[in-house]
Each structure stands twice: as C-alpha cells, then as structure tokens.
Amino acid sequence: MRQLILPALLLAAPALAQQKPAEAPSPERLKADVEKLVSFGTRHTLSSPDDPVRGIGAARKWGAEELDRIGAACGECIKVARVGRTFTGPRAPNGVEVVNVLGFQQGEDAKRVIIVQGHIDSRVSDVMDITSDAPGANDDASGTALVIEAARILSREKHKATIVYALLSGEEQGLWGGTLLAETAKERGWEVIAVLNNDIVGNTMGQNGVRVADRVRVFSEGIRASEDLPGQLARRADGGEDDGPSRALAKAIDKVADGMREKDKDALDVFVVRRPDRFGRGGDHEPFLKLGYPAIRFSVGAENYDQQHQDLRTENGRVYGDTVDKMDFPYLAKVTALNVATIRRLANAPSAPSSVVLDGALSADTRVKWNAVPGARGYRVYWRRNDKQDWTDVRGVAGLTETTLKDVVVDDHFIGVSSIAADGSESIVTFGTRPPRN
User: Fold this and answer.
1) pTM, 2 dp
2) 379, β-bridge pairs
3) Which residues form the signal peptide (predicted)?
4) Which residue(s) pair with 215 in the sheet?
C-alpha cells in the first residue's frame, strides 16, 4: 500500500473578500474537457498508469495539471495532491493501485470540508477489458469535467469551508476511489459537511427516446447506512426516516434549485429521489454514507443504457457506446451551475446544529432546543405537519438557542433547525428528536 501525502490543511485562510458577480459554467469548456478525457482512449483503472497518451495514468496526469493550472491562476489557492492505495478484488484479482487526484481550496476553517467529485475511470461491456477504447464520455467524463469547471469558477472566490475537488479512480471496480477518499476524510478528522457525487450528468435523451432536459435527479438515503440497530430504532420512533443528513442535503439542493429557477426559468428542477442510488446500483457517494457523512448523487433525468458500459458497435441499426456526440453540454452546464450554487451556499454557512431536542409530550406547545454553532448569527426553526415531506413553516431566531412553538403539537409535527451566517448562507437542517434517555 502506498499513501501519498496531502497538503497540510491547518493554516489560517484570509478573511472573506467581497465576491465578484458569479460566472456561469461554459458548455464549450465542458465539451473540450470531455473530448480531452475521451482522447485518452481508455481510462480503465487497470490500464497503463505510465503511458503518456493512453490510459488512466495519462488521464489522471491531465486532470492534476488542469487543477494545478487553475490554482496557479488564483495565486495558488488550490493545492493538488494524489492519494493512492492498492485494492484487490474480483475486478482486480492481481491488485491495482487506485489513485485519486484531489484539489484543495482551503477556506477559513481548514477542517470543515465540502467534497465535489466525479470518477475519471471508464469501461466497456467486459469490465475486465483494459485495452479496447472506452470513451466514457457521459460515464463519467461528464462528472470529471463538472468538477474541473466548478474549480475554475469557485477558485475566484473566498469561502469559509474548505472545498475538495476530487477526481476518483476505481469506481467501476468496486467504488474504490470513493472508499479511499471517505476513509482518508475519517483518518484526517475532516468535518465533511457535504459530498456531491456527480456521475452520468451530461445527457438528456433517454433510453425510450424521450428528451428530459428540465430536471436532474438527486439521490439520497433515508435510513442511514452508518446507524446501528438502536440508532435506527430511535430514528423510527422519532419519525426521522425522511430527514437524515443526506436527505436534508438533498432537500437543501432542491431549495437552491428553486431559488435559481425564480431568477432563470430555464434553470433545472431537482427530482429528489428517496433512495441512495438507482435501483440495484451504486456510486462513489455510498462509502461516505457508510461512515456517516452527508452525501448525495447527481445523475441525469433520463439515462440511456445503450450508452453506458458498452463496446463501441452498431447492431441491427442500434448504436452502442458512450461517446461525446450523445451528450448535451448546455444541460451539463446547468448541472454544474447547481453544484456551484450549492457549494457556495454550504461553504459560506456555519455548521448545522449537532443536536436539536424537542420537549412537548402531553402539551399543545413544543419547546425546541439546540446547541450553539460557532459563527452562526442566527438560526431558522422549521416545522411541518407529519403528513408533509417538505417544510411548510419557518421562524427566525437570533441570540438564543431555544424557542417555543405555540400551538404546534409535537405529536403531529416534524421540527428541525438550521444555522445562518451573517450573509444569509444557510446550513442543512438538523432534525429534532426526543431528549436522550438516561
């Protein structure tokens, strides 16, 4: 096993400067990046790590150079590192070194981290075929290009939290890049406030020929993979199956999208899918869920399965293969814009309250208490009737860490609290539970 050294995330960052008008993601840049990734022929994790023009090694080198170039343009605000480990499994029986390329944009708080990621590796029909061309344009050069474009835009700004731009390897072999990064986060003691996994985010024509260009799916878990049985039973008793941290993150993204659509009717709607990933499948956010981190997956509104994990071929007039010509780059730019807006909100917000406790049994009122959050200028208390999925009511609270909701019966309502920064940036919502039992 080889572990490459990360940059130190311990130095104080400069104070937030006044932000310039936000730059829009460029469909042309995104297309150029996807075409460049496709030009490496195959990016199979078991392909050559050393060939200068073909294979996973050449692709990772290019990705690192792009992040380096972006960092140089912002006065070295992004530091690039590689983290590697040898994995062995059915899809790599002789073992393979999985290397993630990471760009660190340090914020005021070095250990509060937002991760935006895509996987750089690709494959064809036979997952063990390391020589055939595997363009992987949508799966997942689209996500890789999105991460790089997000770095271009966000590197021009200062943020409170640290942003990690992650190009992961080994996804097709068993989510190994995600596993490596999640375990690295835990080993380093990062407070991961959000993981945005982007995988298959660049097409609008579905398998059935129907074009879906107005929405993006956001997948999130309900019952937490990290909870033991007592924890799951406690959540069940409180009715919090739809309000864990990852579901709260998905709902926050939906709220960000609603705000974008108020300003631009062509911005994307969010389809909040209430399961961790597509039916029977998985992605690189799932290793983070197992360790208890809030993590979601972005994916297109309509997949085309003829363009995923396929040998390049035409059979009976049906074209197979994950190629650039099947992509929609204005759509990919919109998904990128939603990622950027979400990162911007969360990177400038305080942490979410670590605990929200409710007291109101046998009462017509509910008392809400939460822990003070460093840097918070105020809080928002949300509630909804138990037969609703989305928050319907909200109260702002400043200078206090408790409030009483008159005539809000706790038996009939769900309640949560978020933290608010001076500029209005808001954390995800922490779900309210019963007081801990002695």
Assistant:
1) 0.94
2) 397, 419
3) 1-17
4) 269
